[in-house]
Fold these 4 entries.
Entry 1:
Amino acid sequence: MYDPAQLATFLAVAQTRGFSDAGRQLGLRQSTVSQHIRKLEAQIGRRLFVRDTHSVTLTVDGNALKEFAQSIIELNERAERYFAGTELRGRIRFGTSEDFALSQLPEVLREFRRRHPAIDVELTVGLSGDLYRKLDARKLDLLLAKRQRGDNRGKVVWRDRLVWVGREDWQPDPDRPLPLVTFPPPSIGHTAAIEALDQVRRPWRIACLSGSLSGLRAAAMAGLGVVVQARNLIVEGLVELPRSAGLPELGDTEFVVISADKNPRSPAAALSATLIANGARFRSV
């Protein structure tokens, strides 16, 4: 029999690729995390991770155990909920933006559905501003998005740096207004770009407005201009522009999960807890 606590620690290390991050995610000391992994490796008789001073990577056996560990933990939790009469049922109207939908979110939702097969998730993907309005109108139960200015609701899932993003060979012309490829206002990236440029008195113009991330990517790949994105959510084909591009700093942003349902035992609360627990996973994209 494998210890579910040790398996949970193993999965946390595999997801975060670090013993310290796994400890923070689980609320354990790093020494406890190391002890769990040592005991698990001794029981299995195989090495699960290759460790050095800079990285932690799964071995072939570690990758094999990952699927087994997820299934063991999920079945254990389902059995506990069933016999305790606490298995969650119901529906979640969950909203998020396109950049999350293209990152680690599908994997997180897949694991959530494994653990809570009696919960139906209705996913709405859209612009953050529209999603906030749907949440306020009670048309969504849960929202994962960048924190809007002046809105203190929600719990932080992770923090990230906003950066200028473009095609790898793209360089801004310092003698011409900076062409911006952006979501329409009240996009957080849109606002951050304009405020940063106005602060340093750098002229700018709107080169492309698009309501979809694929539209922004297409415009940037065509060399029409520069996009503002969170560093860990940069879309394929685009890169963070170097400091030599001469563009101002954009600062950080917070990604928050906000629930319209205040019941701590609701399906929305369960998904919210899952998203927060996987914050390190989003950061390590």
Entry 2:
Amino acid sequence: MSTAVGGYDLDLACPPDDVTAVHTFLASVWETEPSLSAEDRMALELALVELTSNVIEHGARSTGVACSLRVDVGQDAVEALLTDDGLPVPVDPTTAHLPEALAESGRGLALVQMVVDDLRYERVGDRNRWTVRRGRGGSVGSSTSRSD
């Protein structure tokens, strides 16, 4: 990543927290980082809210899930790391694709891939780690990877 300009952290306990906390957190990041373009902000917010929503919906145990979100805003790129103590992810993000038009679910990871340059997933110990990178103001050329 490029030299960090600013780093920001959010910890969530779901429940009671939900993706509203991510929207609120990102609004404060965008306020502090006014040089980040509206297009980059929208793309990153879509990606991070979608990933967090997936963690809460699909990864939570009966007691819920704890997540941490770190956003590093650099001169050339923005990187985010979302970690959680939820269930291991049974989906390989490298194979995510948009479902048929009438499908009611299954678009999340494919949408994230469309708006970021890099999406990575790994299971480290008892935690899931999602890493997202988007170059600032550039075109998106998505790559994904998974390591267990």
Entry 3:
Amino acid sequence: MRVATFFGITLSLAIGIAELTFPVAQAVQLRDGIVYFVQPPKLVEATTTYKEVNFWGGTYYFTINLPENAGESLQKVTIVQREGSENIQYHLDDTRAFVGTRDRKGTQLTLGAVTSDRQTRTITVNFDPPVTPGQTVTIALRPVSNPSFSGVYLLGVTAFPVGEKSHGQFLGFGRFQFYSNRSWW
């Protein structure tokens, strides 16, 4: 395994020989060229604005923290529907991302391609430019509508560092519970 240090900060004291070195995050790259995060991002939260089935106009938010010592910038995120009785469809052209959280929106981020693979139930969100370490970002996906069937829907979130050959780090599941708003007598 090859570990490359980008740079370090050294502070020398004028009085003597004492020296403090503050290491900066290092990128991990294997001999075969695969790039890894040094410290992986964390899925902070996954929420939806509405929990009722068949609701039109909701938004699904995925908040990710990319730590300062990640070692690489965040290039893309995949969101895969792992559980749920109905495939959720999205308005991909209405996908947004911003620095901050759902409740504390900051600067809007520029996205590259946002794609969908219906067979694997995967949404891929590319950042252009990549997100630099030390930031919390939120991806906002707009479904065509919430599913027609109530129940639990699990959406797996994976983050990929910059690199032609990058290893995706699974961050966890966003768990959405949708409820029927009908009363059964």
Entry 4:
Amino acid sequence: MSRTSTSYLAALVAAVCVFFFTRAFFLGHLFVDSRPVRLDVMQGFLIGAGLAFVTAQAYARIKATKVNGWIAMFGLGVPGNGMLLRAAHAQYFPGPVTVPEEAMYWWANADAAGQPLNGEHDYIVHFPPGGLPPNNAFWSLTMGDARNRFVANPINRYSVGDRSGLVSNADGSVDIHIRKTAAHGHESNWLPSPSGNFILWLRVYEPGPAILNGTYKVPPVVKAK
């Protein structure tokens, strides 16, 4: 479910909850003798489910961090976190639930200016010298369309990373070119995009200390000039 659809559903559920609470406690319809028990049970179920959904949505936004347009949730798989955090994760951050020492995930659907990522524009993710994601295993940047599916492309490339043959600039920095057509002279660093909106996923396995302590910042996705 997209973030827009989830927001609409959350608003609808909240409206239903407000309606039932108003009817129950201000209009007094819950307490009339002629009210069937099954209707009380149905209202209780709807209110409970609605409150759980809205609470998980609110908690997800509290726990999520957003830096340079990238969204992450730390510590999702840590034992003892409880069902509320896991429910929040499932609604707001559709990624695997793992302990951070095993893997960390970020996703972005907007560029550095807050505009939706769209294949009609060309983008660059610039990693400064020494700024690639620190890890003890590997990392990858994966492309997904607006429904989070792989994007068909002529070179069958769906991700780039430390095992895909990225070419560094003269100063040691690395630019990843995100666009529909190949960037001339930068084919090794090209991540093909679709025609419409898309989502990027950054995965880092066995992340280094700078990621685990929160000091590492993923570079923003910037429109190419």
